Amino acid sequence: MFTKLLGLKATFLSLIGATVLFALTIHYQSIYQTQWQDKLNVITILLYGVLVITALFSAQFNRSRVTLLCLLWGLFLVTNDYSLPWSTWLTANNQWLILCGGALLVLLALIKDRGLISVHGIARLIFIALCGALAYGWLVLVDMAAPMLPKHQITTTLLPLMSLKVPLAIMALLLLWQSLRQSNLTLTTLLTGFIVWCLMHFQVITLPWTAAIGVLVIHHLLIVIIDAYFLAYRDDLTGLASRRALNQLALSLGRKYTVAMLDIDHFKKFNDTYGHDIGDQVLKLVAAKLAKVKGGGKVFRYGGEEFTIVFPRKTVEQCLPQLDALRQSIADYGMVVRKPQRKTKQDRKGNPPPEKTVSVQISIGVTSRTGKQQFEQALKEADLALYRAKKKGRNNVSE
Q1: 233, 254, 286 — which closes off a domain?
Q2: Is there a single domain that holds both residue 99 and residue 216?
Q3: Packing angle between helix 209-233 and helix 8-31, nearest 10 degrees?
Q4: Best CA proximity match to 378, nearest among 352, 326, 386, 339
């Protein structure tokens, strides 16, 4: 089960980060209470600016759900700070506000990042209105059911929970599951927002809404920045560092290092035989094996079926055992190739599709920096060594 919880690490770190931010804010408020009150107006003005910046930054990196979240926080903040036509109604219907806010966060967790100004944007407005209607309908339904139920100790105990706490608990579990089942920083942001939303309304966190939303928006901004970094410097398919990250590392390397270029043998033929979906699985498999390299090697996807490993402060002789161990571990691994899933009932009536086990092999070219050689030159030497490995029959390491 735990192997499927791909978002466990991201969720844990996100919640820890939010906890630290809130702990520091509460600590500052308790120590500098007088200064806090004096600066609250300034904080409010700054908060609106940070909200706008975070919304625009999120939109720039196609994180439209975070943009929508910032807009919703902004609307709530304006409603809290100013007397608007609906402010009195919201004050009188606090339970609806809590349920509707939680439902909106769940909605954002279930939809995908799409363009704001598009057909999807109109659909989202409809869904947002539907969340409000469902929250209102649920509360009306519970109120209507209360007089009809028999007077019993269990009924008396459960009925108050049914209006608010039970639906909120279901929403929390759904958000937690969504955040854990896939590694997605936007989902961890929504989970964090939901937790703070509930804790603030139940007065577990004793902060003004301005400060609480301010901390949340800073958390959102940090998440989007981290997400943007991974978007720029991580390969989406394999999860390895990208070629851009390799170029960045090259700027910080010292005089002594070793570069290895790796290539999957007969990858084009493999793709042609089994299809690109299986080819992608092969790339992921090789990447997962390469990521376990020892000896301080840093692994990058160079492009296509090529990978690069850089060993800072190491010679070829020091790196050869690690590289050969990598080559052997990949060659020894039997990959099961399954036929494409049968889509129609007619297809599924027959026997299960046969499975085939194939082996994947890699060739490696390795070289160390010599003299005043530039990184590009060392990379080219490693590429030539890779060519020699191919000429020698593949599935070997060549200098």
Answers
A1: 233
A2: yes
A3: 140
A4: 386
